[in-house]
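User: Hi! I'm working on a homework problem where we have to compare a predicted structure to a textbook description. Could you give me the structure for the chain below?
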Amino acid sequence: MTFIKTPTKGMRDFLPKEMELRDYVLKIMSDTYENFGFQKIATPVVEHIENLTSKQGGENEKLIFKIMKRGEKLSNADSSNLDELVDCGLRYDLTVPLTRLYANNMQNLPMPFRAFQTGFSYRAERPQRGRYRELMQCDLDIIGEKSNLAEIELITAVITFLQKLNFKQFTIKINDRQILKAMLNYANMPLELMDKILISLDKMDKIGIDGVREELQKLEIPDEAITKYLSLFNEKKDLFAFCKDLPIADEYVANLLEIIDNVNSQANLVFDPTLVRGMGYYTGCIFEIYADGLTSAIGGGGRYDHMLENYINMSVPACGFSVGFERLLLLLEESGFEVPHTKEKLCYVFDKNISKEEKKSLLKKVNNDRQNNKIVKIVEKSKNFKYQKETLESDGYQIIY
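Assistant: Happy to help. Predicted structure tokens:
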């Protein structure tokens, strides 16, 4: 059998320099969110298949890495039925495990509960720039807060984190699922096709208004309804003007206006009627964040007030914001971002012929430097000392020999 040196498709190894950046960004993130009162949690990467296929994960439910049953359960399963062979899967996001955790522990958690979670998720999709099958996700969620304070706090926390990484040029787009529904009612579009219609609308920035029209025509929707629906996007309008003729309660428009008013002093927050968000569990306000250099969002989220009803016989308001960690790292790496070092880095290089006494004395000095909060290596001088010296210096070490 031949061993393969490279990782499986869509997965990656991380070298020390890459891990240094990842750890630094996670530390900045963790410190920032802690200042906003968020508490860190963790959930398993393996989740019950019933939870992952609850019809709320949108397109991600088609990308699940499924795990077969084991032992006797697998032997007794109907091999002709794929669903019978599977009982678990790798999580495709962190929201599904979060709601399960909350439902199982809500009596021991504060209300409202501010949760911060990081971890790898897995999606069996086609890898591309900034998109992988194994991806680090970083989620902020507030459970139990009915008001738009949840949205304002989540967006503000993420803005604060990005600003600490010296990001200045980014835009946050915002919309509401109720506005998306009102747009369909306004044009007499069939509500039973809402999910398919919104999938097409979500492609507006890629295929244009004519491309969306073609996709809607394939759904056999009357041309009159399609024309009226697409007329909403003929010109850019602010939130109030866009919603003026829509059959929607004033409270939804006022809610978004208040969020925009409270956040716009810190970042560019704009209303975008074509913003959809693919997850089926969103119920209200939705948002995405974009940075210069990437066409795809580097983060997004929204309100999912009914998701906990899957586990408990009650409705609990919830809202979340997920940062696309891998895309964020891609932007930092391509911009030449360097992790700032506050500790002195020393490397003691010794000759292989050093005496026991000299080695003991050197180790004592090394340990003393470490106790003084310095980063210290000790290595034997190699035959190719020039290369050894160059690699150590490139890592920021001052060489002592």
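For your comparison, note the following. The chain is about 40% helix and 20% strand. Residues 345-400 form one domain. Good luck with the assignment!
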